User: Fold DUF4355 domain-containing protein from Winkia neuii.
Amino acid sequence: MAEAKTSSEVEEEPAKAVAEGESAPDKEVDWQAEAKKWKALSRKHEANEKALASKASEYDKYLESQKTEEQKRVEALQRAEKERDEANASLARMAAAIKYGLSEEDLALLGAGEDFEERAKTLAERLKAVTPVRARSATQGVEAGKAVSDDFLGGVMRSR
Assistant:
């Protein structure tokens, strides 16, 4: 059961809060002084962060210098394999997008993973069932304001 506080305990709580740095409810706060205080603390921590970043960089260099050539080659190989796998996954996504006519938004919905192509095929089938097939426009792929001239078409036909 919760204990009832005596009147002396209730009076001591605000005094403890003020002693711990909290402001009393009836005390006026100098906000400019508070802002200066926090700004100074921020600058102090920024300087500390820069010093720590410098030390971390030096430590990374030290660790790198302690590695054997074999370890360096193994890590380089692992990085190259990771980049290759990411490139292959990206290529597979683009190939599936082209194969099934999916947009970038559709690809984003599909995510990534082993069964990506199957999910792409399923999504394409669902979209095809919902969206009516439209005939290709004669101006599709032509920039606005640029008409195809008869001279151009005649030149293409003559070159054949």
